[in-house]
Amino acid sequence: MAAMNGTAARGSRTRRLAWTLALFAVALLVGDFVFALASDEVEVSRSNPFAAAIGLAFSIVGALVASRQPRNAIGWIFLGVALSTGLSGAAHNFVEYHLADGPDQGWLVGAAAAYSDVGWIPFVLVPATLLLLLFPDGQLVSRRWRFVARCAIAGIVLGLLTGGATEPLQDYPTVNNPFAIDSSVLEPLTGLGFLLTIVGIAGSAASLVVRYRHAGHPEREQIKWLATAGAVVAITFPLMLALYDVLPVGVADAGIMLSVLGLPAAAGVAILRYRLYDIDVVINRTLVYGALTALLASAYLGSVLLLQLVLSPSSDVAIAGSTLAVAALFRPARARIQALVDRRFFRSRYDAQRTLEAFTARLRDEVSLDALSDELRDVVTETMQPAHVSIWMRPR
Q1: pTM for the complete prediction?
Q2: Domain limits of the chain?
């Protein structure tokens, strides 16, 4: 009984710690954004609300995972990413606020500027390495992958140390860096940190592939969630960058933000409730509509440029005609891409559909009830693969 009470007490403390860290991260993120809006000295960047939203997603998912599965390192990694994002924003606002008073700044402003200069490293490199390496159970695939984990951690630490020890700082060249190191010492350490980081990123991605190949059904379903979210980012990010000057203001930023928000969301669903949705359906729709979006965007831009060359550079007819052409292309393109995706990535579903179509065509000409029953039994066995098939017919 005493052991059970002790375990319950430790679990309660862990949950309180997880939610305390999450609330602290949220307070930092909200405070950074509100301070930037309220202060005349701090310029509000368009990326501020996006970074705050992404940090908020990491904090919530991290708290949920850490409070329910405290031994899973993924939850604590997410909380650390959220905290680093909030601290980076606070350091940025602190430096910008004091720079308005003049160039002569103290040690604390220099330290904050040095951290703000490298604040992106935990936000970007930790999910790109440790998240892939430990997902979904918080454990390495085997002890042989410890080398990759050590390379990733060493690369991240060296990146923080060398990036924060440059003089002048990249974002704040007028601020004196109290941690500045001579460039002759810094350059080899920077190169070593970059090499270790590359090894960590490549090894972490390879680790996820190896984990998937040797995993059972539940773990494979979990990995599919993260892989799908990563595929969305890989499709959305370059597409939004290519259309940045064409789309209305803020649309491209919102698209990038929503795609990145899918990473913590997918990881949370995979760890906590991977059976919540059918991941194969999500993957199918992602492949279809990702390819469809890229195709229609390319067709729209190409037709606009072509019609403007033919008509006139500022003709509204070119835009209207391109819009109508893309709208007419939507349904046939979606059907063609859906068939291609099913045939290439979901072969069993494609074969089952072809079998049903062939059975439907033969059904019109079949008159023998016994032959129809046998053929129906074969179709059900081939498409659904049940353990047993029996047909019951109501007597006349």
Answers
A1: 0.62
A2: 11-278, 279-332, 346-396
